[in-house]
Amino acid sequence: MDKSMLGDLDSLPEEDKLRMSSMIDQLQIRDSLRMYNSLVERCFTDCVDTFRRKSLDKQEETCVRRCAEKFLKHSMRVGMRFAELNQGAATPD
Amino acid sequence: MDKSMLGDLDSLPEEDKLRMSSMIDQLQIRDSLRMYNSLVERCFTDCVDTFRRKSLDKQEETCVRRCAEKFLKHSMRVGMRFAELNQGAATPD
Amino acid sequence: MDKSMLGDLDSLPEEDKLRMSSMIDQLQIRDSLRMYNSLVERCFTDCVDTFRRKSLDKQEETCVRRCAEKFLKHSMRVGMRFAELNQGAATPD
Amino acid sequence: MAPTNSPPAFEKEQIFGMAEKEMEYRVELFNKLTHTCFNKCIENKYKESELNMGENSCIDRCVSKYWQVTNLVGQLLGNNRPPM
Amino acid sequence: MAPTNSPPAFEKEQIFGMAEKEMEYRVELFNKLTHTCFNKCIENKYKESELNMGENSCIDRCVSKYWQVTNLVGQLLGNNRPPM
Amino acid sequence: MAPTNSPPAFEKEQIFGMAEKEMEYRVELFNKLTHTCFNKCIENKYKESELNMGENSCIDRCVSKYWQVTNLVGQLLGNNRPPM
Predict the structure, then answer these.
(1) What is the dihedral of CA F39, F40, F44, F46, to 10 degrees?
(2) For B66, which of A81, B80, D49, F3 could close a Cys bridge (C-beta 3.0–4.6 Å)?
(3) Where does the Tim10-like domain lie (chains D, E, F) (predicted)?
(4) pLDDT tens, position by position, D15-24
(5) Residue B34's closest chain E neighbor by CA?
(6) Which partners does chain F have (≥3 C-beta pairs < 8 Å)?
(7) What is the mean pLDDT of residues D6-31?
(8) Distance CA C79, CA F63 (A)
(9) Is residue C71 part of a domain?
(10) Which of A29, C12, D13, C35 minimizes the C-alpha distance to F23?
(11) What's the rounded Cα separation, in Å, for the pair E27 and E39?
């Protein structure tokens, strides 16, 4: 998630700005790690269904790659649309 | 969630009472915001299934309203039953 | 989750060790309580489907017991395998 | 708790930490119960915004049974106290 | 906020606490929106790694409708401000 | 890290914050893995409370494959270290 969506810090005194900025950093780190975990869970659930061997076969690996890439592209597009709505740039239907 | 379910503060010294009460406030704020998010997710998932336009149609809007109202009524009823069980007021079948 | 999986504290100064150890304790407490909640949710969802009475019948109770015991055994086995992978003890297929 | 000779500030942090986890647990229990019983009892076509009689009695029994499952699982996990 | 006579340290903690909850809310909103629209718009066979035209326009409309549902539910809950 | 001239208290907070996030991540990874492999490997009729041979070997392979997916996705995300 883009840092700028989390708030505008310019109006704060210097000391609070530092603290707020550190808080945002911490939230972003937590968010990326959670995103990583949930991306793995989703692509594993959608792509891996047989357990006759302990290694991924070629087909599963391809599926996981596409799933992860597709999710990242999706997530970027959602981020752009979301940012537009936040800025009130939404246009009627 | 009703604040009284989270604990009895009367036995604490004044200073700790303030701190505990502030902690409960923070948890309640977090809980309401999460409830808001999960209510939106649920009603969206149950009510919106077509993406030919970018605005909700009348039927989807009605569905979302009913879903949200129903969930809130449900949640209140669960809260009452839950409080009874907490007070040991549960009666046999 | 086994405490040893969360990190090696030996290299830290005494004061930080105490703080880190307390942080790990807190995370473990939170994790066990969450595990408890999600185990209840899973076994309830899988085992209880009729609401003609307000008490569990014998069959539902048996199902819940088995579900919980099975989940705990499963979780222990996953923990062992997970620890092996963490130690790089994974062998090829 | 040791009365005086222990570091009181650190100990107090531990106690507040525990209390916080306990409260988070209660909130999560309530939320999971609410969502699970909604899934079990409420038809998701939303033809009206009122709860009907069948839904109401289903909710009451669902909460009661969920509570029993919480206690039952708690016993298996070796808790010797009720869920709250 | 009271200008001077109140305990500023405690009050500041409250404000930072609120700001933190707000930001957590925004992150969670974004994540739920992302996952929900992925479920609604992306076929999970993953025949390719590109988004096709149908998926792209579905995503745009999904985000827009999710936003409207957020506002609608906010009104019902008595919020008098937009979701962000 | 700067050796001396930086504010050490603030810096230490950052380090502890990072360590906490890392540990939360590990706990969440373990929990998601556990739940996902339970869904994939355990039949949910619960006819007995023991794991049978098929379930046991399914669990072992499921953990191994989940681990590989974690590494694979980590590479795509540009992580240059293993998941733990």
Answers:
(1) -110
(2) D49
(3) 17-77
(4) 889 999 999 9
(5) E25
(6) A, C
(7) 86
(8) 9
(9) yes
(10) A29
(11) 18
One-letter identity of residue C4:
S
Cβ-count burial C48-72 (b if 16+ within 10 Å, e if not): beebeebebeeebbebbbbbbbbbb
Indicate which CATH number applies to the domain containing A22: 1.10.287.810
Residue with tokens 């540009």: F78
- The boundaries of the domain holding residue B41 are 11-86
Burial of F57 (0-12, 13-18, 19+ CB in 10 A): middle
Q: Would you call C41 helix, strand, or coil by DSSP?
A: helix
Residues of C in contact with A53 (CB under 8 A): 93
Residue A24 lies in a domain: yes
Average pLDDT, chain D: 87
> How far is E37 from A43, CA to CA, in rounded Å?
16
- Closest CA relative to residue A20, chosen from F84, C40, E20, E45: E20
Whether C93 shows a pLDDT value over 50: the answer reads no
C-D contacts at Cβ under 8 angstroms:
88
Per-residue pLDDT of chain B (93 residues; tens, 9 = 90+): 666 666 666 777 888 888 888 899 999 999 999 999 999 999 999 999 999 999 999 999 999 999 999 999 999 999 999 999 988 754 444
How many angstroms separate the CA of residue F72 from the nearest CA in chain C?
A: 15
Per-residue pLDDT of chain F (84 residues; tens, 9 = 90+): 444 454 577 778 888 889 999 999 999 999 999 999 999 999 989 999 999 999 999 999 999 999 999 999 999 998 755 555
Close Cβ partners of F70 (under 8 Å, ≥ 6 residues apart)? A40, F29, F83
Q: DSSP letter for C87, please.
A: T
Residues of F in contact with C73 (CB under 8 A): 49-51
CB neighbours of C89 closer than 8 A, spacing ≥ 6? Answer: none
pLDDT digits 0-9 by tens, C11-50: 778 888 888 888 999 999 999 999 999 999 999 999 999 9
Q: How near does any CA of chain E get to the CA of B89, in Å?
A: 30
